[in-house]
Amino acid sequence: MRYQKVILKSAIVLGLLAGASAPAMAAFNQRVIVDTGTGQEIPGGSLSFELPDGTTAPVEEDDDGSLVIVFPGDTAEPGTLIVAVPGQPQRRIAVPMVPGGSDLVIDLPGNRARAVPRGPSDMPGGPDTPRVMINLFGGYGEMFVPPVGAGTLIFGNGEEFAAQTDDRVSGPVGGGSASFPMFGGSGHLDFRYADGSDRASNSTPPGGDIDTGIVFTDFAPSGSTGLFLGNVGLDTAIEREVEHFSVGGGYRHPVGLDGQVGLGFTFQYASTQTDIFARVTSPTFGNDISADYDQSLDDDRITVFFNLDYDGSQTVERGVFFHAGGGLGLDFYDVSLESRQNVICNLCAGPDANFTLLVDDESDGTAFAARGFAGIGVKLGGNLAVSVNGFANHRDKIAQIVNPRTGDDLFVRNQPTAIGFDSGTSYGAFVLLTIGLE
Question: What is the dihedral of CA 408, 423, 162, 281, to 10 degrees?
Answer without folding.
Answer: 90
